[in-house]
């Protein structure tokens, strides 16, 4: 069970859109539509932003969207705002009642 | 509103056992469709799923930690606990407990998290 692969960092200017990728294998991301995304601000607990690949929990801005193609899931944030600056983690069900996280991506809003 | 709160020693000696408890308030740990999990985050690093438990007592562990991890549940106290044995400095981390929505032993997402508790392994 290896960690999912995310870029270490991404950046964008206010108002722009960015996409964070999350690459797994046919044993996790590719086999299940069960990727979730979490936002973590410094010193805070992670917050669920996207679940089941593309669904948004109540209260999460529609500027956040998710998708999946084969073994890669993606998180897109449109209309970047300063408050979006945070670390983002993907997580996938990996079979046999296990979970695997990505290494995390630091988003900088320029 | 459901809340989770981690508690336990903040300092553990190498080779000893780390023990943490997560107290669930505002809801029942025996709710259907929810598992209860432990996740950790070493300083400056990413998240790692440690393991999960269902209120029935069924447990599921990260294969990389399985030999050292034990998770238990006390439904009468609405708590679940983590024990990690033979700790080393590599186990120094912020430990979170979380509620995991799932069905049929498949996990969907973690929707409620505790604030986390820091555990340092040092002599």
Q: What string gives the helices and strands of chain A in order?
A: EEEEEEEEE
List segments of chain B where confidence is low: pLDDT < 50 over at least 5 consecutive residues: none
Describe the sheet with the most strands of chain A. Answer: 6 strands, mixed
Distance linking N and C termini of chain B: 39 Å
Strand content of chain A: 35-45%
Share of residues in helices of chain A: under 10%
Instruction: Quote the average pLDDT of chain A.
Output: 97
Gyration radius of chain B, to the nearest Å? Answer: 14 Å
Runs of chain A in which pLDDT lies below 50 for 5 or more consecutive residues are none
First-residue to last-residue Cα separation of chain A: 35 Å
Structural class by sheet pairing and helices of chain A: mainly beta
Radius of gyration of chain A: 13 Å
- Quaternary organisation: heterodimer
**Rounded average pLDDT of chain B:** 96
Percentage of helical residues of chain B? Answer: under 10%
Order of helices and strands of chain B: EEEEEEEEEEE
Strand residues, percent of chain B: over 45%
